[in-house]
Protein backbone atom coordinates (compact mmCIF):
# COMPACT_ATOMS: atom_id res chain seq x y z
CA UNK A 1 0.00 0.00 0.00
CA UNK A 2 2.75 2.39 0.93
CA UNK A 3 4.53 1.60 -2.35
CA UNK A 4 1.38 2.35 -4.37
CA UNK A 5 0.91 5.64 -2.54
CA UNK A 6 4.55 6.57 -3.06
CA UNK A 7 4.39 5.67 -6.77
CA UNK A 8 1.22 7.68 -7.33
CA UNK A 9 2.62 10.61 -5.37
CA UNK A 10 5.85 10.45 -7.34
CA UNK A 11 3.90 10.40 -10.60
CA UNK A 12 1.92 13.51 -9.61
CA UNK A 13 5.14 15.25 -8.61
CA UNK A 14 6.75 14.39 -11.96
CA UNK A 15 3.73 15.67 -13.88
CA UNK A 16 3.69 18.87 -11.80
CA UNK A 17 7.38 19.46 -12.51
CA UNK A 18 6.86 18.76 -16.23
CA UNK A 19 3.95 21.21 -16.45
CA UNK A 20 5.99 23.81 -14.55
CA UNK A 21 8.83 23.48 -17.07
CA UNK A 22 6.41 23.79 -20.00
CA UNK A 23 4.78 26.91 -18.55
CA UNK A 24 7.81 28.53 -16.91
CA UNK A 25 11.01 27.67 -18.82
CA UNK A 26 14.04 27.67 -16.53
CA UNK A 27 16.06 29.58 -19.10
CA UNK A 28 14.54 32.47 -21.01
CA UNK A 29 15.20 35.95 -22.31
CA UNK A 30 18.77 35.29 -23.47
CA UNK A 31 20.18 36.90 -26.61
CA UNK A 32 23.65 36.76 -28.09
CA UNK A 33 25.91 39.46 -26.60
CA UNK A 34 27.22 40.06 -30.11
CA UNK A 35 23.75 40.93 -31.32
CA UNK A 36 23.16 43.27 -28.39
CA UNK A 37 26.39 45.13 -29.12
CA UNK A 38 25.48 45.36 -32.79
CA UNK A 39 22.17 47.10 -32.05
CA UNK A 40 21.93 50.44 -33.79
CA UNK A 41 20.47 53.14 -31.61
CA UNK A 42 18.59 55.08 -34.27
CA UNK A 43 15.16 56.63 -33.87
CA UNK A 44 13.75 54.69 -36.79
CA UNK A 45 13.22 51.13 -37.93
CA UNK A 46 16.33 49.33 -39.10
CA UNK A 47 16.85 45.74 -40.19
CA UNK A 48 17.47 43.44 -37.25
CA UNK A 49 20.41 41.05 -37.23
CA UNK A 50 19.01 37.67 -38.41
CA UNK A 51 17.53 35.66 -35.53
CA UNK A 52 18.65 38.22 -32.96
CA UNK A 53 15.12 38.24 -31.53
CA UNK A 54 14.74 34.46 -31.18
CA UNK A 55 11.34 34.64 -29.45
CA UNK A 56 9.67 36.94 -31.97
CA UNK A 57 7.42 35.01 -34.36
CA UNK A 58 5.05 36.01 -37.13
CA UNK A 59 1.44 34.84 -37.21
CA UNK A 60 -0.31 33.86 -40.43
CA UNK A 61 -3.86 33.03 -41.44
CA UNK A 62 -4.95 31.29 -44.63
CA UNK A 63 -7.79 33.84 -44.71
CA UNK A 64 -5.42 36.81 -44.84
CA UNK A 65 -2.48 35.84 -47.03
CA UNK A 66 1.20 34.90 -47.23
CA UNK A 67 2.61 37.65 -45.00
CA UNK A 68 2.52 37.93 -41.19
CA UNK A 69 -0.47 40.03 -40.18
CA UNK A 70 0.67 40.54 -36.58
CA UNK A 71 3.61 39.90 -34.29
CA UNK A 72 3.80 37.41 -31.45
CA UNK A 73 6.17 36.38 -28.69
CA UNK A 74 7.15 32.82 -27.83
CA UNK A 75 6.93 32.57 -24.02
CA UNK A 76 6.91 28.77 -23.56
CA UNK A 77 7.35 25.68 -25.70
CA UNK A 78 3.70 25.62 -26.82
CA UNK A 79 2.51 29.16 -26.08
CA UNK A 80 2.80 32.53 -27.77
CA UNK A 81 1.55 35.92 -26.62
CA UNK A 82 -0.12 38.45 -28.92
CA UNK A 83 -2.83 41.13 -29.05
CA UNK A 84 -6.49 40.14 -28.88
CA UNK A 85 -7.44 42.62 -31.60
CA UNK A 86 -5.19 40.65 -33.97
CA UNK A 87 -7.42 37.65 -33.34
CA UNK A 88 -10.52 39.73 -34.08
CA UNK A 89 -9.03 40.73 -37.43
CA UNK A 90 -8.31 37.10 -38.32
CA UNK A 91 -11.84 36.02 -37.32
CA UNK A 92 -13.27 38.29 -40.04
CA UNK A 93 -16.59 38.99 -38.31
CA UNK A 94 -17.08 35.42 -37.07
CA UNK A 95 -18.14 35.29 -33.44
CA UNK A 96 -15.76 33.70 -30.95
CA UNK A 97 -15.84 33.43 -27.16
CA UNK A 98 -13.82 35.85 -25.07
CA UNK A 99 -12.05 34.30 -22.10
CA UNK A 100 -12.37 30.68 -23.30
CA UNK A 101 -10.04 28.57 -25.43
CA UNK A 102 -11.42 27.94 -28.92
CA UNK A 103 -10.36 26.46 -32.24
CA UNK A 104 -9.76 29.07 -34.94
CA UNK A 105 -10.23 26.42 -37.62
CA UNK A 106 -13.56 25.22 -36.21
CA UNK A 107 -14.98 28.74 -36.22
CA UNK A 108 -13.62 30.05 -39.53
CA UNK A 109 -12.70 26.98 -41.56
CA UNK A 110 -9.28 28.60 -42.03
CA UNK A 111 -5.87 27.73 -40.61
CA UNK A 112 -3.60 29.80 -38.39
CA UNK A 113 0.12 29.19 -37.88
CA UNK A 114 3.22 30.89 -36.56
CA UNK A 115 6.65 30.96 -38.18
CA UNK A 116 9.56 30.40 -35.82
CA UNK A 117 13.17 31.53 -36.40
CA UNK A 118 12.28 33.64 -39.43
CA UNK A 119 14.01 36.73 -40.80
CA UNK A 120 13.00 37.25 -44.44
CA UNK A 121 9.47 35.89 -44.59
CA UNK A 122 9.43 35.83 -48.42
CA UNK A 123 12.25 33.29 -48.70
CA UNK A 124 10.71 30.43 -46.69
CA UNK A 125 14.00 28.74 -45.97
CA UNK A 126 15.76 27.15 -43.01
CA UNK A 127 16.06 27.67 -40.13
CA UNK A 128 12.51 29.07 -40.24
CA UNK A 129 9.61 26.64 -39.87
CA UNK A 130 5.85 26.77 -39.32
CA UNK A 131 3.86 25.52 -36.34
CA UNK A 132 0.07 25.18 -36.52
CA UNK A 133 -2.05 27.00 -33.93
CA UNK A 134 -4.27 24.59 -32.01
CA UNK A 135 -6.17 26.93 -29.70
CA UNK A 136 -6.79 30.62 -29.11
CA UNK A 137 -7.91 32.47 -25.99
CA UNK A 138 -8.48 36.20 -25.53
CA UNK A 139 -8.29 37.90 -22.14
CA UNK A 140 -11.73 37.80 -20.47
CA UNK A 141 -11.66 41.58 -19.88
CA UNK A 142 -10.91 42.40 -23.52
CA UNK A 143 -13.55 44.40 -25.36
CA UNK A 144 -13.81 45.25 -29.05
CA UNK A 145 -13.98 48.99 -28.42
CA UNK A 146 -10.71 50.62 -29.45
CA UNK A 147 -11.19 53.03 -26.53
CA UNK A 148 -10.67 50.17 -24.06
CA UNK A 149 -7.61 48.15 -25.02
CA UNK A 150 -5.79 47.83 -21.68
CA UNK A 151 -6.57 44.10 -21.81
CA UNK A 152 -5.76 43.73 -25.50
CA UNK A 153 -3.91 40.46 -25.01
CA UNK A 154 -4.33 36.86 -26.15
CA UNK A 155 -2.58 33.50 -25.98
CA UNK A 156 -2.15 31.01 -28.80
CA UNK A 157 -1.58 27.34 -28.05
CA UNK A 158 0.61 25.53 -30.59
CA UNK A 159 -0.04 21.97 -31.72
CA UNK A 160 3.50 20.86 -30.91
CA UNK A 161 6.42 22.09 -28.87
CA UNK A 162 9.01 24.55 -30.13
CA UNK A 163 12.39 23.28 -29.01
CA UNK A 164 14.98 25.75 -27.79
CA UNK A 165 17.82 26.22 -30.29
CA UNK A 166 20.36 28.89 -31.18
CA UNK A 167 17.65 30.66 -33.24
CA UNK A 168 14.52 29.85 -31.20
CA UNK A 169 14.22 30.91 -27.58
CA UNK A 170 11.55 31.81 -25.04
CA UNK A 171 11.10 35.35 -23.78
CA UNK A 172 10.71 35.91 -20.05
CA UNK A 173 7.58 37.31 -18.50
CA UNK A 174 8.32 40.14 -16.07
CA UNK A 175 8.17 39.75 -12.34
CA UNK A 176 4.90 41.20 -11.00
CA UNK A 177 6.75 43.94 -9.15
CA UNK A 178 8.81 45.13 -12.13
CA UNK A 179 8.02 48.79 -12.76
CA UNK A 180 10.26 50.40 -15.35
CA UNK A 181 10.44 54.21 -15.05
CA UNK A 182 9.77 56.86 -17.65
CA UNK A 183 12.90 57.35 -19.73
CA UNK A 184 13.76 53.64 -19.80
CA UNK A 185 14.77 52.39 -23.25
CA UNK A 186 13.37 49.17 -24.70
CA UNK A 187 13.28 47.57 -28.15
CA UNK A 188 10.56 46.48 -30.54
CA UNK A 189 10.73 44.13 -33.53
CA UNK A 190 8.32 43.32 -36.34
CA UNK A 191 7.52 43.00 -40.03
CA UNK A 192 5.04 45.88 -39.97
CA UNK A 193 5.06 48.81 -42.33
CA UNK A 194 8.10 51.04 -42.46
CA UNK A 195 7.34 54.75 -42.97
CA UNK A 196 9.30 56.02 -45.96
CA UNK A 197 10.45 58.64 -45.47
CA UNK A 198 9.81 58.83 -41.72
CA UNK A 199 6.75 60.77 -40.51
CA UNK A 200 5.21 60.90 -43.99
CA UNK A 201 2.17 59.06 -45.29
CA UNK A 202 4.08 56.83 -47.72
CA UNK A 203 5.14 53.44 -46.37
CA UNK A 204 6.02 49.93 -47.40
CA UNK A 205 6.17 46.49 -45.86
CA UNK A 206 9.74 45.25 -45.35
CA UNK A 207 10.54 41.64 -46.16
CA UNK A 208 13.02 41.32 -43.29
CA UNK A 209 12.47 41.67 -39.57
CA UNK A 210 12.95 45.25 -38.42
CA UNK A 211 13.77 46.61 -34.97
CA UNK A 212 13.71 49.97 -33.27
CA UNK A 213 14.70 51.52 -29.99
CA UNK A 214 11.89 53.21 -28.09
CA UNK A 215 11.49 54.99 -24.77
CA UNK A 216 8.91 54.52 -22.03
CA UNK A 217 7.08 57.74 -21.18
CA UNK A 218 4.76 58.88 -18.43
CA UNK A 219 1.32 59.92 -19.60
CA UNK A 220 0.12 61.47 -16.36
CA UNK A 221 -0.20 64.81 -18.13
CA UNK A 222 -2.54 63.48 -20.82
CA UNK A 223 -4.21 60.33 -19.48
CA UNK A 224 -7.58 62.05 -19.71
CA UNK A 225 -7.14 62.23 -23.47
CA UNK A 226 -6.24 58.54 -23.85
CA UNK A 227 -9.61 57.06 -23.01
CA UNK A 228 -9.50 53.49 -21.74
CA UNK A 229 -5.82 53.40 -20.85
CA UNK A 230 -3.96 54.09 -17.64
CA UNK A 231 -0.55 53.53 -16.12
CA UNK A 232 -1.85 50.53 -14.16
CA UNK A 233 -2.75 48.22 -17.05
CA UNK A 234 -0.88 49.84 -19.94
CA UNK A 235 2.60 51.13 -20.75
CA UNK A 236 3.36 53.92 -23.21
CA UNK A 237 6.32 54.68 -25.46
CA UNK A 238 7.23 57.90 -27.23
CA UNK A 239 6.61 57.92 -30.98
CA UNK A 240 9.25 60.64 -31.32
CA UNK A 241 11.83 57.93 -30.53
CA UNK A 242 10.54 55.78 -33.40
CA UNK A 243 7.29 53.91 -33.67
CA UNK A 244 5.84 50.55 -34.70
CA UNK A 245 3.36 50.71 -37.55
CA UNK A 246 0.57 48.80 -39.28
CA UNK A 247 1.26 45.06 -39.07
CA UNK A 248 3.34 45.34 -35.89
CA UNK A 249 0.40 44.88 -33.51
CA UNK A 250 0.74 42.04 -31.03
CA UNK A 251 4.50 42.25 -30.90
CA UNK A 252 6.25 42.56 -27.56
CA UNK A 253 7.96 45.51 -25.93
CA UNK A 254 11.35 43.89 -25.26
CA UNK A 255 13.02 45.34 -22.18
CA UNK A 256 16.35 44.33 -20.68
CA UNK A 257 15.96 44.11 -16.90
CA UNK A 258 17.82 46.75 -14.87
CA UNK A 259 20.40 44.15 -13.77
CA UNK A 260 20.87 43.25 -17.48
CA UNK A 261 20.31 39.55 -16.72
CA UNK A 262 17.47 38.85 -19.17
CA UNK A 263 14.98 40.29 -21.63
CA UNK A 264 11.33 40.42 -20.63
CA UNK A 265 8.14 41.10 -22.54
CA UNK A 266 7.04 44.20 -20.67
CA UNK A 267 4.03 44.91 -22.89
CA UNK A 268 2.06 43.79 -25.95
CA UNK A 269 1.50 46.39 -28.67
CA UNK A 270 -2.12 47.46 -28.91
CA UNK A 271 -2.39 50.80 -30.69
CA UNK A 272 -0.95 54.25 -31.20
CA UNK A 273 -2.49 57.61 -30.36
CA UNK A 274 -1.56 61.16 -31.40
CA UNK A 275 -3.38 62.69 -28.41
CA UNK A 276 -0.21 63.47 -26.49
CA UNK A 277 2.66 65.64 -27.68
CA UNK A 278 4.43 63.79 -30.53
CA UNK A 279 2.10 60.81 -30.00
CA UNK A 280 2.52 57.64 -27.97
CA UNK A 281 2.25 53.93 -28.64
CA UNK A 282 0.16 51.93 -26.21
CA UNK A 283 0.98 48.45 -24.95
CA UNK A 284 -1.06 46.18 -22.70
CA UNK A 285 1.12 45.76 -19.61
CA UNK A 286 1.97 42.09 -19.10
CA UNK A 287 2.85 42.23 -15.39
CA UNK A 288 -0.79 42.90 -14.45
CA UNK A 289 -1.97 39.91 -16.49
CA UNK A 290 0.45 37.32 -15.09
CA UNK A 291 -2.17 35.46 -13.07
CA UNK A 292 -4.33 35.01 -16.15
CA UNK A 293 -1.41 34.07 -18.43
CA UNK A 294 -0.01 31.53 -15.99
CA UNK A 295 -3.45 30.15 -15.18
CA UNK A 296 -4.31 29.53 -18.83
CA UNK A 297 -1.00 27.87 -19.65
CA UNK A 298 -1.14 25.65 -16.57
CA UNK A 299 -4.76 24.61 -17.15
CA UNK A 300 -4.18 23.67 -20.79
CA UNK A 301 -0.67 22.16 -20.67
From TrEMBL:
Name used for this protein in its record: Peptidase S1 domain-containing protein
Domain of life: Eukaryota
Record Gene3D superfamilies: Trypsin-like serine proteases
Keyword annotations: Disulfide bond, Signal
One Gene Ontology term of the molecular function aspect: serine-type endopeptidase activity
Family: Belongs to the peptidase S1 family. CLIP subfamily.
Keyword flag GTP-binding: no
Domain Peptidase S1: 7-298
Source taxonomy: Eukaryota, Metazoa, Spiralia, Lophotrochozoa, Platyhelminthes
